[in-house]
Amino acid sequence: MKIVLCQEGFRAIEEMLQGLLPDGEVVACSPENISTVGKDAEVLIPAMTPLADAELSLPKLRLVQQFGAGLDTVDIPTASRHDVYVANVPAAGTGNAESVAEVAVMLMLTLARQFPKAQQNIRDGKLSVPTGLSLKGRTALIVGYGGIGREVARRLGGFEMTVHAVSRSGPKNTEAEKSIPVDAHSTQAGLHDLLPQADFVILAAPLNDDTRGLIGSTEFALMKPAAFIINVARGGVIDYEALLVALRSGQIMGAGLDVFWQEPVNPNDQIFAYNVIGTPHIAGATDLSFKGIAARVAENIRSVGRGEAPNNCVNIQDL
Q1: What single-letter DSSP state applies at residue 313?
Q2: I need a surface site. Which of 32, 39, 151, 190 has the fewest CB within 10 A?
Q3: Positions marked catalytic
C-alpha cells in the first residue's frame, strides 16, 4: 500500500509511519506533485495541504487520513463522491492535546512576562525590568472545550486562575469534563457575556463554518484593553483585519499565535509590528504527540487495507 504525505519536511513522521507499516511505502511530496507521485497511492495524508477534486479522484485512493485533527483543507463532500474515506485523529488521548496546551500556556507566559523585552534587557545590561503580569488571580476564557481546551484548563488551574469555557453545545457532563472543573461553561451564545471578564482568551476550537471569523471586531470591542488573545486553533478563527485594528488601536494588549491565515506566515507581515508572539504551527509537534498520532494513523491504514472502515471517519454516513 502506498501512503503519500502531501507536504515535505516531516521526515520524523515519514520514519515513524514506515516503521509502523513495514509492508507499505511511505513517501512525501510537495503539494503540486500529489497527482504525479500519488497516481498509485491508496492513502493521502494531507497535513496542511488543500485536497480537492484533482487529488481526491486519484484512481487507487481509498483513504484521506489526517495526521492530527484538522480537516479544514479537505473537500469532504468531494471525497465522499469518490467513495474515499476521510478520517482524523482527535487530539485527546494521543499526547497532542497535552502538547498544544503546553504551547498555549507558553504563549500566555511569554506575553504576560514580556519575555522578548526581558531578553533585550539582558543584552542591554538592565536589571529587574520589565515588570510582568502574574497569571494568578486572573481570568482565562477558553473558546472550544474539546480535548485541547480541557488540557489548557487543567494546566491553568495550577496557576490559580479563574477559568471560563465556551463550547458549541455547552457542558456535556462527561467524566472527562467533570475531572477538570471550570468556574463557568457556556454555549457559544454566551461568548459575548464572558469576553469582558477575560484577561486571556484562548482559542482551541476547530475551524468550520460556525467558527470561521468567530473573533472579529465585535468580539475585540468587548475585550479588556489589557487582555491578550492566544490562538492554538486555526488562523481563520480570528478575523485578520479585526485583529490588526485591535492591536493598532490598543483595543487589546497583544496576541500569541501558533497558527496563521497563510502558512508559512510571512515574517514581514504587518501584524508583527505590534505586541505579537508567534510560533510556526508547532504546538502539537512533540515526540509524545507524534508517537501517539502515528499509532492511530497506522491502525486506520491497516483497517482500510483489510477492507474495514477507519476509526473516526467523518464521512462514514455518506459512503
Answers
A1: B
A2: 32
A3: 234, 263, 281
Provide the number of structural domains found in the chain.
2
Give the cell for residue 182: 471550570
Q: Are 235 and 261 in contact (CB under 8 A)?
A: yes
**What is the model's pTM?**
0.90
Q: pLDDT tens digit string along 139-163?
A: 999 999 999 999 999 999 999 999 9
Tell whether 27 and 121 lie within a shared domain: no
**How remote is the C-alpha of 245 from its chain's centroid?**
24
Assess whether 298 and 203 both reside in one domain.
Answer: no
Q: What CATH number corresponds to the domain at position 146?
A: 3.40.50.720
Q: Which amino acid is at 4?
A: V
Query: What whole-number distance in Å separates Cα of residue 198 and Cα of residue 191?
Result: 11
What are the beta bridge partners of residue 5? 28, 45
Question: 3-class secondary structure for 167-181?
Answer: ECCCCCCCHHHHCCC
Neighbours of 74 (CB within 10 A): 24
Bond from prior residue into 22 cis (ω within 30 degrees of 0): no
Phi-psi region of 256 (alpha: psi -120 to 50; beta: other; left: phi over 0): beta
- Residue reference for cell 471525497: 79
Cell numbers for 219: 468580539
Instruction: Measure the CA–CA gap between 102 and 99, rounded to whole angstroms.
Output: 5
In this prediction, what percent of the chain has a pLDDT beyond 90? 92
Q: Is there a contact between 43 and 62 (Cβ–Cβ < 8 Å)?
A: yes
Task: Find the mean pLDDT for residues 185-209.
Answer: 96
| SS3 assignment, position 131 | coil
What gap in Å lies between CA 262 and CA 180, rounded to an integer? Answer: 34
Range of the structural domain that residue 51 is part of: 2-90+286-318
| Type of residue numbered 205 | A
pLDDT digits (tens, 9 = 90+) for 251-309: 999 999 999 999 999 999 999 999 999 999 999 999 999 999 999 999 999 999 999 99
